[in-house]
Design brief:
This protein has about 120 residues and is mostly helical. About 90% of the residues lie in helices and about 0% in strands. Keywords: Membrane, Transmembrane, Transmembrane helix.
Length: about 120
């Protein structure tokens, strides 16, 4: 084998190795670009999930605040109802006292009136 043939074989091997190296480099670059796209896609999805989670958290806080307000309103209504029950009880008591007072006045008037027979009403004394 001659020297020139040997040189061409070595050059051919070097070219083939260089082509293989370029193909491998391009393949890695493409794979890395794909990986980066996947990472970016994951980042976007994570950002969307975080945004939805924040919206959900805000909604939960809003519902919680509404529930607290409803509870406070219910407690206020209970206090108002208790106040009204006491007021009604006082008025009922006042009405009963007035009724008894009226009956006592009527009884006294009947006792003083000579035309009224109080014995029949009192059970025949």
């Amino acid at each position: 084998m001659e020297t020139s043939q040997l040189i061409w074989i070595i050059v051919g091997i070097i070219v083939v190795l260089a082509v293989i190296g370029v193909v491998i480099a391009l393949s890695r670059k493409r794979r890395q670009a794909h990986v980066e796209r996947q990472k970016e896609k994951g980042r976007r999805q994570a950002a969307e999930i975080r945004e939805k989670a924040q919206e959900t958290e805000l909604e939960a806080r809003e519902r919680e605040a509404k529930a607290t307000m409803a509870e406070a309103e219910a407690q206020r209504a209970e206090v108002e109802a208790e106040r009204l029950r006491r007021q009604a009880s006082e008025r009922q008591s006042d009405a009963q006292s007035l009724r008894e007072e009226t009956m006592n006045h009527a009884r006294k008037a009947d006792e003083l009136d000579p035309d009224v027979d109080t014995r029949r009403r009192d059970g025949g004394r």
